[in-house]
């Protein structure tokens, strides 16, 4: 399956010059080529490890080891707190012993590594069990066998370069880049790509479904990890359905359709969040969290970031519809600085930012009606499987509207 995905993406890369333009494609290739993430190289490194683990059962029994999953994610939080102290000390703002902090950091990172494989196997089992409870198995037949198998690796995912036209908000290219890029390299790539007359942004992602096993970020919290693992599996599941296959063609540049991309991403996001909520409630929720489906929330901030972002997007769309590109870009930069003054720092706020985040129409910051239509359809569906099957069979936005109506 990975080979099929990789070939389709490669074909799309070769033919996309007919969609965007040969000069643009050639110049873009010269900019990103040194930084492109090798999917094939990663597969060659990881697949032997997975086979060895499967053949020799190196993870051992995972029953009754949920406490190790909690311990793994506690170590992530401890590492983040320790890194903050180290950064402050290096900046001359802390009174800690740097050598002691770094020694403790190395110890925690080593301990986290010993728990990683166990955490992966346990969460995979919990996802499979929950999918079984929902009657979700294979996209190809009614046989009750898992396909694709649920399998993910906790690691730092590649960065994603998102490209949008300047005169509208729409993702026209997405390119995976190496995960170890420095901020200076990221900004240099964006500056060069922007000179091609487009809007670009390099973003961090929580997971990547174009590989097998899938990528899931190894520095996010427990609930986000469960959601991401389920979502990346759903992307692979959907490839074998009409909606997901059309989305694959969109990613490859063979048949671009932003509405299909939004439907597919939003469907995967909604279903994965339901699966994630069920798993979290069953295995990990504390008594005070029961019924919420989330980890214990922080105090509600006075500033409503989601509402502010929706208003910014509406105004940007209005400016772009009137052909006022420079005014829209100036407005976004002013709002970016305002958000920073409210404690919400965004490195860049541009058309590519909204093009990337806009494909998740169930996001609180989205103004896309596709999100509301899918939520309405979920409410009309008899089960999660019924909802997934109905939307996965769609081939257009019109089909979604008709189904809701």
Which descriptors would you attach to this protein?
60% helix; 6% strand; 16 helices; single chain; 3-stranded mixed β-sheet; 405 residues
Instruction: Give the low-confidence spans.
Output: 1-19
User: How far is it from the N-terminal to the C-terminal residue, by CA?
Assistant: 36 Å
Strand content: 5-15%
The rounded Rg comes to: 22 Å
Mean pLDDT: 87
Shape: globular
Structural class: mainly alpha
| Biggest sheet descriptor | 3 strands, mixed
Element order: H for helix, E for strand? HHHHHHEEEHEEEHHHHHHHHH
Widest sheet: strand ordering: 1-6-5
Secondary structure: helix percent: 55-70%
- Structure annotation, total helices: 16
The total strand number stands at 6
Please write out the topology.
Layout: H1 2-15, H2 17-20, H3 22-32, H4 39-56, H5 66-90, H6 98-133, E1 152-154, E2 159-165, E3 173-177, H7 183-194, E4 198-203, E5 207-208, E6 214-216, H8 222-238, H9 242-252, H10 258-283, H11 305-321, H12 325-341, H13 351-357, H14 369-380, H15 384-392, H16 397-404
Parallel strand pairs: 1-6
Antiparallel strand pairs: 2-3, 2-4, 5-6
What do these coordinates show?
The chain has 405 residues and is mainly alpha-helical. It has a domain of 251 residues. Helix content is 60%, strand content 6%. It contains 16 helices and six strands. Strands 1-6-5 form a three-stranded mixed β-sheet. Helix 9 packs across helix 10 and helix 10 crosses helix 14. The longest helix has 36 residues. The chain is globular and about 60 Å long.
